[in-house]
Design goal:
The chain has about 750 residues and is of the alpha+beta class. The chain is built from 13 helices and 43 strands.
């Protein structure tokens, strides 16, 4: 069944599954009118339903089968799909607003409006679930558009208009899972598939209150056997839905107790006294009794009054604690004598404004069969059929790994949606990683992630599929869970710290040495496989002996590290100088008396002396440059620029010495030595050097900041990157640590 979305004229089977009876109608929409081709009516043989809730699914399924078979015989064709409605038991409603933006001006189609409505249903469901304070699972069983908007302005019908923005106000209704499940199961037992599900008051209002009357503040009351379903209209739309679990059966039960009869006999008494003056019956003792119409009305008077007052209270609550202008009553339960009069009194409106609606609301319905039934019992089933054309609200059932699950059909259901509904673990859909490897490097925790495993294997009806493959009713989905990958494995040589090199000067030549590492205090080679919890320390030095072995040269003669006598186990750090005099004879035992601590203090003293000497030289140079201050100008970029000799003004203009102390007239490259982080660095290959040139002669990774700021000082102050360097300048370059102030 495709309905109006795929073309008018196709048959629609509507089924009103009531507490006391089942009414089936088959027809089609054509030329704006609904044509009824067949109708059948059947009462339940037992109380298989109570208050709109199915109690005996099997017996209700049998009754549906009988109605279906009769209709099939009338039409001489098989019926496979059916539209149904649910009673408003434990009804919840949500009012929502959704919008759809278009990239350019777009002409709205029926499909666009349908898509907008679907978006509204999904958003309503999300909003409802946020406030659902019960353990019950609820489903949307119907929705009604309240207002449409075109580019922010309210409009009656979007179709055909060109818009950049389309929007809708919608009221959506929700019922518990058990109500929906019972209906679907009973229909399934009858060999039918649900094509559309709506709410009974939504269906009834399709017929009972045409759109032209919805500007009025009115109420529709569908009084069935088990429930009284209520809807409110105002300002051209439906504004609220409600329900009370009191209707015709509650009156029948009173007659059961008073007359001492079974439920079916009491129901017959109630109906017949509505049309005749007296009814004869037998009580449970087998005695023949007669009861008059006046007696029945007297017995039921108090309870009819109570039912009317409860309906009136619900109407006021739904209408903002105000009465309505008029009430239409449909359904068999509303035919009880005196009901409409008492409802009018409870609402404080004249009795003429509360009326039973039946044949008079069927003006847009053509009954193309002999002796059709046109009373108020037909309002809801006809409305169920019409609801199919105005909304598509349905659930589908699929088999997921042997589990029968229900999905709300939004037209875009996928395997992933089915997995979520069946509570299949999301982790079992996606590849899982193997066990990670955690260890410590230089005091900091490190983790290597495991390898990815295989993704889940998904089959839809036996064919290979993926998570995004669409699913349809009765599909069979089989998902083999994803697997975990192999655990993380890493050789110590792959550590980034070991990819860096140690740079030292050996007998005047710059040597690049590989770094080494200890694991749990033991020196390991680059092929060592890191184990869980290992404590790794990457050494930032090499010993004299290790350097000699790396260079494959004999270690003979007197050894010097930074011009200080050393031994084979003396540590050599970044930019240290190492030399040995192969012609000198030295016994390392002569150095035994100097401890490691003494050697450290001696190195620090020598470095401090070098720093002091460099600072004094910088001070001397600063004083000499202050004398020819006039020879310095400020360039357009804000940097200091020294004018060429002979062009500046001041005492030293035209002096014959260059900045670096070289003789005047020397135009070739010059070498200067600066102290970088307390170590001497020789700058070569240029006539003049600026601060940034230093980075070409030192090993400093500018990408290793990790969000920290770089500190660059020159002679104790912040350096400018383009300022000139001179012999003996003292430079500091390092990453500023968190919390450390420059």
């Amino acid at each position: 069944m495709a309905g109006v979305r795929e073309g008018q004229g196709q048959l629609v089977f509507g089924l009103d599954i009531g507490t006391r009876s089942i009414v089936g109608i088959v027809g089609h929409l054509s030329g704006g009118r609904f044509h009824v081709l067949a109708q059948r009516f059947r009462e339940h043989e037992t109380r298989a339903m109570v208050d709109g809730q199915i109690h005996d699914i099997g017996k209700v399924g049998q009754a549906i089968s009988q109605v279906k078979e009769q209709l099939e015989e009338d039409l001489n064709r098989k019926l496979t799909d059916v539209c149904i409605a649910a009673a408003g038991r434990v009804l919840r409603t949500v009012v929502t607003h959704v919008e759809q933006e278009f990239d350019e001006e777009h002409e709205v189609t029926e499909e666009d409006v349908y898509s907008l409505s679907t978006m509204g249903v999904e958003q309503s469901h999300d909003e409802f679930m946020k406030d659902n304070d019960t353990d019950l699972k609820f489903y949307c069983v119907g929705y009604t558009p309240m207002h449409y908007y075109m580019n922010g302005y309210q409009i009656g019908n979007l179709v055909g208009h060109k818009v950049r923005n389309a929007a809708i106000d919608m009221i959506a209704t929700f019922l518990p899972d058990d109500v929906v499940n019972g209906l679907y199961k009973a229909v399934e037992l009858a060999g039918l598939r649900v094509a559309n599900l709506t709410l009974e008051p939504i269906a009834a209002i399709q017929v009972a209150i045409p759109e032209k009357f919805r500007m009025l503040n009115m109420a529709l009351v569908d009084v069935g056997a088990g429930t009284s379903d209520i809807s409110i209209t105002k300002d051209g739309t439906i504004t609220a839905y409600g329900m009370i679990p009191v209707a015709g059966d509650s009156l029948t039960e009173i007659l059961v107790q008073h007359c001492l009869v079974d439920f079916d006999t009491a129901e017959r008494i109630k109906r017949q006294t509505g049309a005749q003056e007296s009814v004869e019956y037998q009580d449970i003792m087998g005695l023949t009794q007669v009861i008059t119409r006046q007696e029945v009305e007297s017995i039921l008077e108090e309870h009819v009054q109570e039912m009317a007052e409860q309906v009136a209270a619900c109407i006021r609550e739904l209408n903002g604690e105000k009465s309505v202008s008029a009430v239409f009553v449909v359904g068999g339960g509303g035919m009880v004598p005196g009901y409409t009069e008492r409802l009018a009194k409870a609402l404080d409106i004249v009795k003429e404004r509360v009326a039973i609606r039946g044949q008079e609301v069927m003006q847009g319905i053509d009954f193309e069969l002999e002796n059709p039934r046109r009373d108020s019992m037909m309002v809801t089933p006809v409305g169920i059929c019409l609801s199919y054309y105005s909304q598509c609200n349905n659930f589908i059932f699929v088999d997921f790994n042997g589990k029968h699950i229900k999905l709300y059909d939004n037209g875009r259901l996928s395997v992933a949606d089915a997995a979520v509904q069946s509570e299949f673990s999301n982790e079992d859909l996606f590849p899982k990683r193997g066990t990670p490897l955690t260890f410590v490097v230089n005091g900091k925790n490190r983790m290597v992630r495991g390898n990815l495993g295989e993704t889940a294997v998904i089959r839809l009806n036996g064919e290979i599929a993926d998570m995004y493959t669409q699913v349809h009713n009765s599909d069979r989905i089989k998902v083999t869970p994803s697997t975990a990958g192999t655990p993380a494995v890493m050789e110590i040589g792959r550590l980034p710290e070991l990819s860096e090199q140690l740079h030292v000067y050996v007998n005047g030549t710059r040597i690049n040495l590989p770094k080494t590492a200890t694991v749990n205090g033991r020196l390991e080679n680059e092929y060592y496989l890191i184990r869980e919890g290992d404590n790794i320390h990457v050494q930032n030095y090499s010993t004299v002996q290790e350097i000699a072995e790396f260079m494959d040269v004999p270690l003979v003669g007197r050894i010097y590290v930074n011009d200080t006598p050393a031994k084979p186990d003396t540590r050599v750090y970044e930019n240290f100088t190492l030399s040995w005099d192969v012609n000198a004879e030295i016994s390392y035992e002569d150095l035994e008396e100097e401890t490691e601590e003494d050697a450290r203090k001696r190195r620090e003293a020598k470095e401090a002396a070098a720093v002091k000497e460099a600072e004094e030289e910088a001070k001397r140079l600063a004083e000499s440059y202050s004398a020819d201050r006039a020879g310095v100008t400020v360039g357009s970029d804000g940097l200091l620029v020294r004018e060429p000799a002979g062009q500046g003004s001041g005492a030293n203009a035209g002096a014959g010495a260059s900045q670096g102390g070289e003789p005047a007239g020397n135009t070739g490259p010059v070498d200067i030595t600066v102290l970088v982080n307390k170590y001497p660095v020789v700058l070569k290959g240029k006539k003049e050097y600026v601060f940034v040139d230093v980075f070409s002669f030192i090993d400093f990774d500018l990408n290793a900041g990790g969000g920290r700021a770089i500190v660059t000082n020159l002679n104790g102050r912040k350096a400018e990157y383009m300022e000139t360097l001179r012999e003996g300048d003292v430079i500091e370059i390092y990453w500023e640590e968190v919390g450390r102030k420059r």
